[in-house]
Structure formats: structure tokens, C-alpha cells
Amino acid sequence: MMQTGVSKRGVLPGFGLTMGYSVVYLSLVVLIPLSALLLNSTGLTWEKFWSVATDPRVLASYKVSFMTAAAAGLIDTLLGLLLAWVLVRYDFPGKRWFDAIIDLPFALPTAVAGVSLTAIYSQNGWIGSWFEPLGIRLAFSPIGITLALMFIGIPFVVRTVQPVLQDLDAEVEEAAATLGASRFRTFWRVVFPELLPPLLTGFALAFSRGIGEYGSVVFISGNMPMKTEIAPLLIMSKLEQFDYAGATAVAIILLTISFVLLLLINSLQRWVRKTAR
Amino acid sequence: MAGSVPMNTAKASVSRNQTTRSTGAVKWILIGTALLVLLWLIVLPLAVVITEALKKGWGVYVEAIRDPDALSALRLTLLVALITVPLNTIFGVAAAWAITKFRFRGKQLLVTLIDLPFAVSPVIGGLIYVLVYGAHGWFGPWLQAHDIKIIFALPGIILATMFVTFPFVARELIPLMEDQGQQEEEAAVTLGARGFRVFWKVTLPNIKWGLLYGIILCNARAMGEFGAVSVVSGHIRGETNTLPLHVEILYNEYQFSASFAVASLLLLLALVTLLLKGWFTRKSSH
Amino acid sequence: MKKGIKKGVLLGIVVAMTAVLAACGSDSDAKSASGDSGGESKGSVELLNVSYDPTRELYEQYNKAFAAYWEKEKGQKVTIKQSHGGSGKQSRAVIDGLEADVVTLALGYDIDAIQETGLIDEGWQSEYELNSSPYTSTIVFLVRKGNPKDIQDWDDLIKDGVEVITPNPQTSGGARWNYLAAWGYALHNNNNDEAKAQEFVKELFEHVPVLDSGARGATTTFVERGLGDVLLAWENEAWLSVKELGPDKFDIVYPSESILAEPPVAIVDKNANKRGTAEVAAAYLEYLYSEEGQTIAAENYYRPTLDSVKEKFADQFPEIKLFTIDEVFGGWAEAQPKHFNDGGIFNQIYAPK
């Protein structure tokens, strides 16, 4: 935001009010409860933390969680861009329905999503049965987890890109096109830089939601330790032993890694914003 | 970035005809692919839900939905959404304003903290409230002494839902408002407009799309949330069961069709919100 | 600017307070209503029974029967509220403050955990007859119609090419009985050699392609997805699956011996005393042992313990050799840490080599 250099706080009103309110609300709803995890209310000691953190099964579950969430996030970003683009730029019959359906994955309870997706991708399902003869197992494998996370995350990307795209004036593109730029070049040089920040946001949201997702994944993953066991499931499994400390340890590590990743993506986005010209 | 500065704003009210200018082939290929993606990724699983729901016929379907437990779950779900969505919307707008219209230290940190609830596993999202308000939590003994129930009652369910849907509105608005810069508002202020009026007359028309999407997503998620709520609800039938919890219980009782029928009710609710959005869109474009 | 921040903070606090208060307000209304009823001895009383997953139909029937019995006996109306969920989760909810008057869970370990926090008095398991387990069950095999892989006993589960479906004992309380049943069988067939038993169980789990997190998920995997040749299930759930999902598709096979699954019941003393429901709660659990209670349990495929009812339902529950967890494993207090907790035997099965 280059031109705000003049007035650091600007002439706009309401900084104090909105900032104060945001921080308080954030603290009450998110930060204070979350700090309950960290503040040792469960008798978590360093030794315990360390032994949980280095347990091979826990490490394997992190790997599964992060890999599948990243894959799902990436695919969602591409598909989401396509969906948003078509929705904003083109008119076609049934568009309103198209638009309406995008949000439904959020409204469906995750467990139902998990059961339905497993029904589709398992070896006797509508899609899974095509892949079974090829020796490809969709459900009960990391592919299945990725598919579930894609379903869960797609609205994030579409809905973050859509408003920006809607706001983007077609005139600039038209001008570029009139000036002789090819369509691809127009997209790449004019539109894409504008879309990169929302795309990054969409990715970050889909990705982080994927890491934490439990309800839909447990049905499709098969939950085999070391192979398709996700980290949130290990949290459940530790709670089942009344091992609050162990569960908290897994959660804290998960949370820290996600937080750092999100921070990186958010900073990257800022950097993109600054340098995109 | 520099190119974008003057071009956003009032005239961005998207006129559809103007934008449909890609020539035939590319347009239809893109639309076709997008439709396929949509069918495969979203419609197919929903179709499974509907077919399973109707597998045992309309009788079972209607009965599942008219069950008093299902109705009380529906009421609870609507009530929770009614309380959480406005609260999170106010927060989202305030946070987006502070973050995008001003420069301050630690902005990235704040943005990331707002994102945090997305990265927290829903199970943990519920557990933290148990750790704070549960019988063995920080405030547990005090709450018990005063006979105030938070966990395993309505307030707990609301808190957990607020946590899970916390970032939606803010997250929708931040990229949008960042893109729009603040000259318009500044101009308005220079011209003598004040405080809330600037927001209402200048900012709001520009962000209404993002705001609407944010609210819709927030609402959909608030009604569909399962994991976090299930930890703090206590699952008392007819009392603290939300619709998603009711779906799970039916499923666990081998009532497959009934459980999917109730799930389809949730889809229906989401469609209603989307119809409202359609109505709003049409109204505002006139 | 400073003033603005203060305003914002203040506003934030006010909004949050009103939200919480509004929520509490609506809740305390409901609360006071139930509080009143708890205080009066005549009139009406309310019980909360926190139970595990597939017991809803059982308790729906039983609650009606008990309410009628109680009204006749004491002239008092009793309404029973039900909560269902995974056994371990339900136990945690009670520990964390869910005000249950009675708990009826899938395994004693989950009630022990509540007792440890002082909510339930010590010795709960001897408060009622038969380890406080008014009805029991066991672990059986659900196979596809005609039993194509010819599975008759536990040994057949580790034959080549047999796939076994069972939930993860670490996330599903009910599935711990599955594991223990297999262990007990192997122990008895190898002169109580623990190492051999461990080997058998390890081999068994190598035949498990998918470990669902709960019993219902495992049933779906077996029934709807067509995965596996045999499902290890509680007897009552096997019957439910056959009834609900396809009498023409599945058979139930009884192994030569299995474990006696004892889902116990207990009064949550502290809550019941506080709410003044101790008397009716005790009667509620006691009545489970009556002829009527036992019949309802049997109708919902739980094994009755009362002889007269047992006889009536003899066809439904074939006699097989059953061992108890106390005999073979020394109770849950020993079995849980040894087998299922982190570092236990189950974890070693999946430890990377």
C-alpha cells in the first residue's frame, strides 16, 4: 500500500475502536481458551512432551496430515480458480445453481461427507470401482484422505477469489487486449498478480482446515497406524486413554507448525502484494 | 499492484454482459471443465446423501425429519447460528477495517492469529473450552459453586461454534479491502464525512460481495459444525443435540436412511440461505 | 487514538458479556425448572442417563417401562433424559461436568475413570449383582452369507487370504473387547503362553486392512463397502446389523469361546445426591435386573442374566464358553495399561521395524 506512506495512521477514523474491539474479541474467543492448552492445565511435562513429539507413530501421522492437506490445498487452488473465473466472467444457463452449490460442503456435517465420499471412492463405489481393476485404491489410502480434504476445502478458494475477481475491472484487461497483448499474456501480467493474494489466502485456509479435519477423514482414511493415520485421530485416541497431556502435546505441535506455516503464507502474500507490478 | 490502484471502486459494479467477451471456444471449454469439476467434486457426494436418504422411501424420510428430537435439534442449530453469525460478522468487519485501513506493527501476526481457528482441529476447538470451563478447568469450580452451566449447555455450544467460524468474515474481507486501498474513504473524510457514515456510504457498497460470502460461509459452517460442538454438547437428546450431532447418533444406531435424511435437511437449510442471497443480490442490483 | 482503543476494548467486553449472559440466562431458565423438580420428592423427578452408542432403543423402551413402574410404586412421575456417544467420550463428559445421575457404559474402565475423580463412590462395581452388569454380550463373527471363507473359529481368522474388519481398540472402547477375546482364546489354546497369545493377536491385526475409529464405521466398511471377510462385533450389534442391513446377506458365527462383555452401570453418587435423585437413580438401575428390564434387554439382543428370561430367549443366545476379563486379565485396571495405552502391546503391533 504505497501511498499510505504519507499518513501513517491516515485521516481515517475508527482505528482505535475497531482495533481494540478486534483484539478483545480475539482474546476472549480464541487466545485465552487456546492458552489453556499451553498453560499446563493438563499436567504436561517436558519429558512427556518430548516423548510424544518424537514417537514414530506421531511423526508418521504428521507427515500424512501435512502431505495430504498440502496436496488437497494445491488442487483446490487450481480448481477453485477455474470455478471462480467461470462464475464471475461468464453467463450460462443454470449459473445461479452453480453458484449456490459451491457452499454446500460447509453445510454438510463432516461425518456425512466422509461416509458419502467413502461410498463413492471405495472399491465397490461409483468411482472407486473403475480404479480397482487398475490396482489403484482410492478410499482407505492417502488419495482418499486428499479427496476428502478437497471436498472440505474447495469453498474456501472459490469464495476468496470470487469477490476480488468481481471487483477487478474488465476495462484494464480490455485495454491490455486492445494494446495487442495476447489473452494469455493479459491474464498472466494483468489479472494473475491481482489474484495471487486471494489465491494464497484460499490455499492457506483450505490447507489449514485440512490439517485439523477429523470427521470426514476417519471414514475414508482406513486409519492404519504409520500409513493413513492422521494426527487429529491420534489426539482422539489419546483422549480415549484419558491421556489429556498426550493429546495436548500432539495438538500443540500441530498447532505450532500450522501457525508458522500460516504466518509464512501471510507474509508471502504481503510480499507478493508489494512486488507485484 | 500500482496498476490496480485507480481501477477498483464504484464502477466495479459488475455488469455481466460487459464481461462476457472471451470468444466462444475458450469460454465453453472453461465452462464445461468447471461444470465437470463441480459435478465430480461437490454434486456427486451430495447425490449420495440424497439417494441414501430416500433409500427406504418417503415415509422414513418424513418420519426422520418430523421426529421431535430432530425438530428440537433443528431449533437449537438455528438458534446457535443466529447468535454466532452476527457476532462474528461484527468482529470480521471491525478487524478487517483495522487491518486494511491502517498500518501498524504486527499486522501479519494479527492476521495469522485470526486464521488460527481454522488450523486447530475441531476436536481441540472443543477441548479448550472444556479445559477452561469444565469441572476441572480454570473456572470450573467457581461456575459449579454458582450453578452456572457453560459446558454441556447452550453457552458451550455457542462458544465452540464461534471459535470454529471465527475467521470467516474477516478472512473474506481482508484481501478484498486490501485490494481496494483507502483513497475513497480518505476522500470522503476530507470532504467532511465522518466515522460510521464513511463506512456505511463508501466502504460497505464496495465490500458487500465479500461480506455476503463471508456471512454465508460462516452460517453454513455454523450449522454444519460437528467436531468441536460434539465435545462440549453432552449429547442430551432433545436438549443439547444440534442437527449434525443428531445425524451422527442416528447413524450410530444403524438408522442409516434417517441419518442421511436429517443431513439433507441441513443441505436444505444451506440452500435457503443461498436463496436469500440470490434475493439480496437481485434487489441490490436494481 | 488511545481513547479509541479504550472504547473498542470496552465495547468488546460489553458485547461478549451480553452474549454469555444471554446464553446463560436462557440456560438457567431450563435449569431452574429441572432444579425444582429435583427438590420435590413427590410430583416429578428428572434423571439423566449417560450411555454409550447403540443402546438408544434399549433405553427408550426401558425408560418407558421404568417410568410406569415408578409411578405405580411411588406415585411420582419420572422423566429420563438420554445422552449417547462413544463410551470413552461420554465418560470424559461426565468427568468434565455433564451432570449424569447414572452412567451405563460399554466397559468398566470408563466408569473407573469417573470414580477416580470422586464423582462415584469406590466399590461401584460390587454395588449391584454380577459386577454391576445387568445385561451382557459377547464378541461374535459376522460373515457374508453362506460363509464362503468357512470361518468357524478364531484360528480361521489368520488363514491366508482372510481379511478381518474390526475398529481400532485405541479409539473404540467396544473394540477393546474384540482384542481381549482374541487374546483370551489364544492364551487358552497355547497353555497360557503370553508370548504365543501376543503373536496370535499380532498376526490377527496383520489381517486387518482398515481400522475404523468406531464400531459403526467398521460395520459400514464391512457391510456397505464390501471390504473384508469377517467383522468382529458385539453380539447385539451383529444382530442389529443383520436385522437393519440385510438378513439375506450375512450370517453370524459363534466361535468356540469368547469373552463375556460386561457393560456396567453405576450411580454417579455426587450428582445424584446433589440433585436429590439418589433414590430413584438406584431404583432405576435395580429395575434393570427385574423380569421386565431383562426382557427388554434381551429383545434388544443383549444377553439377559436372569434365569427365567434366559430360558425364554435361549434360541437367540447360543451357549458358548465365555471367559471374563477378571479371570483372564485381572480386570480393566490391569488390561488397559498393559494392552491399550501408549507403549502397550497393541502399539507394538504397529511399531515400525
Q: What does the secondary structure layout of this molecule look like, with pairings?
A:
The complex is a heterotrimer of chains A (about 280), B (about 290) and C (about 350).
Chain A: H1 15-38, H2 46-53, H3 56-89, H4 95-101, H5 104-107, H6 110-121, H7 128-131, H8 142-167, H9 170-178, H10 183-212, H11 217-221, H12 231-240, H13 244-275
Chain B: H1 16-19, H2 24-54, H3 57-66, H4 68-101, H5 107-119, H6 122-133, H7 140-145, H8 154-165, H9 168-180, H10 183-190, H11 195-224, H12 227-233, H13 243-252, H14 256-285
Helix pairs in contact in B: 2-14, 3-14, 4-8, 4-9, 4-11, 4-13, 6-8, 6-12, 8-11, 8-12, 9-11, 10-11, 11-14, 13-14
Chain C: H1 2-39, E1 44-52, H2 56-74, E2 77-85, H3 87-95, E3 102-104, H4 108-116, H5 129-132, E4 135-144, E5 164-165, H6 173-189, H7 194-206, H8 215-223, E6 230-234, H9 235-245, E7 250-253, E8 257-261, E9 265-267, H10 269-275, H11 278-286, H12 291-299, E10 303-304, H13 307-312, E11 321-323, H14 325-329, H15 332-340, H16 345-349
Parallel strand pairs in C: 1-2, 1-3, 5-6, 8-11
Antiparallel strand pairs in C: 3-9, 4-6, 4-7, 4-8, 4-10
Helix pairs in contact in C: 2-12, 3-4, 6-7
Keywords (chain C): Periplasm, Signal, Transport
Subcellular location (chain C): Periplasm
Organism (chain C): Paenibacillus brevis
Can you walk through the features of this model?
Chain C: InterPro entries: Thiosulph/SO4-bd. Chain C: Its main location: periplasm. With 277 residues, chain A is an all-alpha fold. Helices cover 74% and strands 0% of the residues of chain A. Chain A has 13 helices and no strands. Helix content of chain B is 77%, strand content 0%. The two termini of chain B are 32 Å apart. The longest helix of chain C has 38 residues, at 2-39. In chain C, helix 2 runs antiparallel to helix 12, helix 3 (87-95) packs parallel to helix 4 and helix 6 packs across helix 7. Chain C is built from 16 helices and eleven strands. Classes of the chains: A mainly alpha (277), B mainly alpha (286), C alpha/beta (353). Chains in contact: A-B, A-C, B-C. Chains A and B meet through helix 1, helix 3, helix 4, helix 5 and helix 6 of A and helix 1, helix 2, helix 4, helix 5 and helix 6 of B.
